[in-house]
Amino acid sequence: MRIGIDVGGTNTDAVLLGDDDSVLAAVKSPTTSDVSSGITASLGALQDQRAFDPAGVKAVMIGTTHFINALVEARRLAPTAALRLGLPATAALPPMVDWPQRLVEAVSGRSYLAHGGHEFDGRTISELDPDELRRHAADMAAHGVRSVAITSVFSPVNTEFELRAAEVLAEELPDVAISLSHQIGRIGLLERENATIVNAALRELASDIVGGLFAAVAGAGIDAPIYLSQNDGTLMDVEHARRYPVSTFASGPTNSMRGAAVLSGVTTCAVVDVGGTTSDVGVLTRGFPREATTEVSVAGIRTNFRMPDVLSIGIGGGSLVRGAGSSATVGPDSVGYRLTERALVFGGDTLTATDIAVAAGRADIGDRARVAHLDKELVAAALARIAADVADAVDRMRTSSQPLPVVAVGGGSVLLPEHLPGSGEVLRPENFAVANAIGAAIAQVGGEVDRVFTIEPGRRGDVLEAARAEAVERAISNGAVPSSVEVLEIDEVPLPYLPGGATRIRVKAVGDLSLTARSSVDLREPLPVGSRA
Amino acid sequence: MSAATAPRQLREVGLAEVRAISRGAAVLGTGGGGDPHIGALMAAAAIRAYGPVALTPLAELPDDAVVLPVAMMGAPTVMVEKIPSADQVGRAVEALTRHLGLGVTHVACIEAGGVNSLVPVAAAAELGLPLVDGDGMGRAFPELQQVLLTLTGVRATPMSVVDEKGNCAVLDTVDNRWAERLARSVTIDMGCSAMISNYAMDGAAARRGLVPGTLSLAASLGDLLEPGAAGDDPAAAVAEHLGGRVLARAKVIDVERRTTTGFARGTAVLEGSGCDVGRTLTIDFQNENLLVRDRPADRDDDGERVIATAPDLICLLDTATGAAITTEQLRFGHRVSVIVAPCDPRWRSPEGLALAGPSAFGYPDDAVLLEGVSA
């Protein structure tokens, strides 16, 4: 048995899955401000719904929006220093130059520039200067810094300086948490550095939350490893989560999409999640969401986290319907959470998409008599509008001209027709209300390579093979069953205006989590707060 | 043309203008030129430190002005990782000034498309000098000699190439192609992102050889692309503003990229949509978009013809927002409007076409330029 829990902003959903992935129990309860009591309540509710032996639980997987919410609300952020290695390069734009002032203050952000850094081809920009680092460390200590983000120029090409600087800082500041940029982001110094600073600022909170998760799971008598969902849908062990809380930022939508795929039995598909105000469309390839290729702004900070590529359009159950007859329009404005007072079927005075669905007989919500008078032409036109807009969004998200099945989830999915123009049948899985918890419980781990390689003429095949092997090796060291590991994607982008075949290669390998052999870290041992990569 | 799109002559570049130029320069980058974002951050940081930059219209430039263009050379992909040092941009200008033994009076822009639209703003702010409202191309091109100044007889050298470490090379070459070749080698050794100053000229030569008003143009394009400013059809508004036209509304159905000699070469295949259903367009790019082929609905493969080429501006804009799409961002499913806009008339001369037409990029095709534009 496995337990999947998704801690959302409003609800905490939990499922108990059998070894054959069947849903044995599924519960929904309100999210609590302290993580542990909400988890305890969910585990209790599962036990109530279907009694199980805690000793039979092999793993607990948790997805949480706690960390991204902490950043958005600028609460419980640790006093953080950004240490950048690259002088004399990069001084034109110091760390946090593009941050909202409010968040700089929330992390008590301090910036330090030091020598170090590499060129694109691995040469050194300048040597690391340990004395300079010690002087910076003394200043950090004097200013009460409790977490440090280290970013070295081209660390995705060469990690050496970040690792060495971390050693120097750890000697000087043994109680300070250290985050390294090459573990977090990709090429693009400011964006990677921003993500690393955000990560550093969340380290103390991460430690508390992970401690709370341990306590809640142990309190339910479960002695099984705990994993957290990452943005890409793979799992990380709790020690990794302690060090890299940013890896959870987009786990909510990812788990929702992956759960929808499991429930529908279709792993390569578009998932349309129709909410009250928007419909979010994402694409899964073999069960994993496609990632956004552009920079992502989080709470006003430009970063290059790996986030799922989601297209939102302004169509939801609360969307306003306007116009008459065949010229009906739907959205993008919505009555939102006030649907139950403002929609016609609930006795309100506003014509919404939900009213249209009820009038068309696609849903039975509220008082059907209140929409009986609606013009049939208007109803048909509004539904056609919705179908066309959603079909268009799905079509935009496709990556090839191959047909792509559509899985619809969310309370507003009744708005969608049985067939979408250009896409075919719309699948509506049962149990979609707990799709996110099911998505969390999918037990897969990944390994990734993302670096700039120099490809000499005729050596392309060898370079790609080496990158593949490295990604597979990483997946195995993260706990994947070796025989289950497969390479999910290979992306090869020649870097423009660069000589010598410089090519950025990304390889992602994924395998099933080994639930018998523990991963490299023994998860039951308490871990020091400031432990480092 | 609505009031919002009326041409305006900027007299000063402050923080708001930097944002607008950044959006507009992405359009003038015709798919390449590097993301202006990092240039915008540098320009904004310099303006916050030193104050706004005065912009001098080309026509007001005195004959005896000493004008020094400044730009980044190398890979924009590197520049977003190895950000320049604090004084690197200014040092490029100072190094050339020292070598020339002349007092510089104005900074200029060599390439209005992409990241190099805003590097000179950072330099001008730092040095406390006015910036000329114009540039050497009226768009983006990959190589240093591909400027109108080559046609009007201005030498690229002496030129400075400076890195962030304090190294400075001053080149003196027999012609502008050699300047490209040697400066490229130096730039690669410097880690593929260097600051350069070249094409030193007096005010009279600048008036002859620069494209006037292109920074103002970039800013007005940027204003046009302010969300909500351009109405339902921002791409059409951009095309109109540039005196060009929309070639097609389409969806990207295939992007093929090839690994060759450090250039992002490739081909994008677009399927017409809306009133262009049935057409198939093929865009050839090498960093910038260079060639558009069209196969109308009722023709087979043999019916394909070239409908636009460099040096005219071929831009792919997001149909919904009008935002420029770079060749690196192109992917299946993108809804784009393909627009073509006329290049500066001087590019249309036989010499101009030899320097920046299809043959300069290795295509056998003749240049196909927008008609109804005076050469």
From TrEMBL, chain A:
<dbReference type="Pfam" id="PF05378">
    <property type="entry name" value="Hydant_A_N"/>
</dbReference>
<dbReference type="Pfam" id="PF01968">
    <property type="entry name" value="Hydantoinase_A"/>
</dbReference>
<feature type="domain" description="Hydantoinase/oxoprolinase N-terminal">
    <location>
        <begin position="2"/>
        <end position="172"/>
    </location>
</feature>
<feature type="domain" description="Hydantoinase A/oxoprolinase">
    <location>
        <begin position="192"/>
        <end position="395"/>
    </location>
</feature>
<protein>
    <submittedName>
        <fullName>Hydantoinase/oxoprolinase-like protein</fullName>
    </submittedName>
</protein>
<dbReference type="InterPro" id="IPR008040">
    <property type="entry name" value="Hydant_A_N"/>
</dbReference>
<dbReference type="GO" id="GO:0016787">
    <property type="term" value="F:hydrolase activity"/>
</dbReference>
<dbReference type="InterPro" id="IPR045079">
    <property type="entry name" value="Oxoprolinase-like"/>
</dbReference>
<dbReference type="InterPro" id="IPR043129">
    <property type="entry name" value="ATPase_NBD"/>
</dbReference>
<dbReference type="InterPro" id="IPR002821">
    <property type="entry name" value="Hydantoinase_A"/>
</dbReference>
From TrEMBL, chain B:
<dbReference type="InterPro" id="IPR027479">
    <property type="entry name" value="S-Me-THD_N_sf"/>
</dbReference>
<feature type="domain" description="S-Me-THD N-terminal">
    <location>
        <begin position="17"/>
        <end position="172"/>
    </location>
</feature>
<dbReference type="InterPro" id="IPR048350">
    <property type="entry name" value="S-Me-THD-like_C"/>
</dbReference>
<dbReference type="InterPro" id="IPR024071">
    <property type="entry name" value="S-Me-THD_C_sf"/>
</dbReference>
<dbReference type="Pfam" id="PF20906">
    <property type="entry name" value="S-Me-THD_C"/>
</dbReference>
<protein>
    <recommendedName>
        <fullName>DUF917 domain-containing protein</fullName>
    </recommendedName>
</protein>
<dbReference type="InterPro" id="IPR010318">
    <property type="entry name" value="S-Me-THD_N"/>
</dbReference>
<dbReference type="Pfam" id="PF06032">
    <property type="entry name" value="S-Me-THD_N"/>
</dbReference>
<feature type="domain" description="S-Me-THD-like C-terminal">
    <location>
        <begin position="175"/>
        <end position="364"/>
    </location>
</feature>
